[in-house]
Write a structure and sequence with these properties.
Layout: H1 2-7, E1 24-31, E2 41-49, E3 58-62, H2 69-78, E4 84-89, H3 101-107, E5 115-117, E6 121-122, E7 132-133, E8 148-152, E9 165-170, E10 174-175, E11 178-184, E12 189-192, H4 199-208, E13 213-219, H5 231-237, E14 241-247, E15 259-262, E16 273-278, E17 285-293, E18 311-320, E19 326-331, H6 337-346, E20 355-358, H7 372-377, E21 382-388, E22 401-404, E23 417-420
Parallel strand pairs: 3-5, 12-14, 19-21
Antiparallel strand pairs: 1-2, 2-3, 2-8, 4-8, 6-7, 9-10, 9-11, 11-12, 11-16, 13-16, 14-15, 17-18, 18-19, 18-23, 20-23, 21-22
Length: about 425
């Protein structure tokens, strides 16, 4: 468990330039003599991050020099607990609650720095490391006996999400509209467990990341590796899951309205939350049907529309994935032979040689398209301004790409799509 603490300490890569970030404790754990890190009484280990430190940060014990109750209380809260019950140095702690000298030497001396913080002093009510004074991170004059042992209240303190920023990253840390979710705060940074996350929560995270609409959300293990943070990046940056049970009610307006608990170790990087978000409102809609329609001119009742032939004006139906609203109407003409072939295939006419036209190029007297009178009497509009479907063995509506026509869109009724799957 101690090895896991060192190799999976939660932290977030801060990309690009900008305002310098103060030092912060990205992970704090209490470890007992059995090297268990899910306890409320044990030797305190922390990982400290900041712009002046390496990406991995500095991991080690906290020296007990100048320790006060207020400082110990701050450290218990950093470890995810509500308050401090008692503290002592390793030299005065019982063996059951302290990391052994041998483990300390094996895991810290020569590998890290042994102590991450020395001369730490926090004022009453401190909630961030920047509100405390301390020596430069990793610099100390302490030995093993001066390490800190804390007993904290077993009632865990919820994660403070108020100051968290949301980022979506993939690959080596590239910012994107789809990627692994990273919470970046002044007190901790890391991944979110996907277990139990709802669409309301995922939508709120998209909004916090700067996007209008949720497209999809998954556990990282269900996503192609090119679309999520790479395993090498997670290892090199020491990024791990820090939050579980994230829940944002439907009326939430920011992350501060949500609740979460500190990670208990049940979730790993495979279970981390992945999001796909967009600012394209068209992605709120899905294409659910294609139809070829025509009527006899002068007959404009709904029952007069014929849809059982392999020719006609192309009518499309789309559905809003949020509200369930459906719209049926026209789509703009496209000369794409791929799209025409795929349309015929999906409407039950495979292995045809389709012939696509603008409706204005189809003679009115043939009665093989939706007539002007029918369109006007039934208030039929353009539903899509663009539609493209790939050509290939697996033609599916979900693979087509389209743009929802904005209100008032009308390129001219003669420019609607007509198709003959001959």
């Amino acid at each position: 468990m101690l090895t896991q603490l060192l190799t999976t300490a939660a932290a977030l890569l801060i990309l690009g330039t900008g305002e310098a970030r103060p030092d912060y404790i990205s992970l704090a754990k209490l470890i007992n003599a059995n090297r268990q890190s899910d306890v409320s009484w044990g030797t305190l280990m922390v990982t400290v991050k900041g712009d002046g430190l390496s990406d991995r940060g500095v991991t080690g014990m906290v020296c007990g020099d100048n320790m006060t109750d207020d400082t110990a209380h701050f450290l218990c809260q950093a470890a995810g607990f509500g308050s401090m019950e008692q503290w002592s140095r390793l030299s005065r702690a019982s063996d059951a609650h302290k990391l052994s000298y041998a483990d300390w030497r094996n895991f810290f001396v020569g590998k890290f720095v042994g102590f991450a913080l020395d001369d730490l002093k926090c004022s009453p009510g401190a909630t961030r490391l920047e509100e405390c004074s301390h020596n430069s991170v990793g610099h100390h004059n302490c030995d093993y006996s001066e390490g800190m042992v804390l007993k904290c209240s077993e009632m865990e303190r919820g994660v403070d999400l108020e100051d968290m920023d949301v980022q979506l990253q993939k690959g080596r840390g590239v910012m994107s509209s789809n990627g692994t979710v990273l919470l970046n705060g002044t007190r901790s940074s890391g991944l979110v467990c996907a277990d139990g996350v709802t669409s309301d929560t995922a939508e709120l995270l998209c909004n916090e990341a700067g996007y209008d609409t949720l497209v999809d959300y998954q556990a990282a293990k269900n996503v192609n590796r090119s679309s999520k943070l790479s395993c090498d990046t997670l290892r090199y940056r020491n990024i791990s899951v820090i939050v579980e049970d994230l829940d944002c009610p439907s009326n939430s307006t920011d992350l501060g309205d949500c609740s979460a608990s500190h990670a208990r170790g049940d979730c790993d990087a495979d279970d981390a939350l992945w999001l796909s978000c967009t600012n394209d409102s068209g992605q709120e809609w899905e294409l659910i049907d294609l139809t070829l329609a025509h009527n006899v001119a002068g007959h404009h009742e709904e029952g007069d529309l014929e849809t059982d032939e392999d020719y006609g004006t192309v009518l499309v139906t789309i559905r809003n994935t949020k509200t369930g609203e459906e719209r049926t109407g026209l789509t703009s003409y496209t000369s794409s032979s791929y799209t025409a072939y795929s349309m015929c295939y999906m409407m039950g006419y495979p292995n045809r040689q389709p012939h696509e036209k603008r409706t204005g190029d189809v003679r009115d007297t043939l009665n093989i398209k939706v007539s002007c009178g029918y369109i006007l009497e039934n208030d039929m509009d353009f539903v899509l301004s663009y539609l493209w479907c790939p050509h290939g063995y697996y033609q599916e509506l979900s693979l087509c790409w389209f743009k929802v026509a904005p209100d008032g869109y009308n390129p001219g009724l003669d420019n609607a799509m007509w198709l003959n799957c001959i």
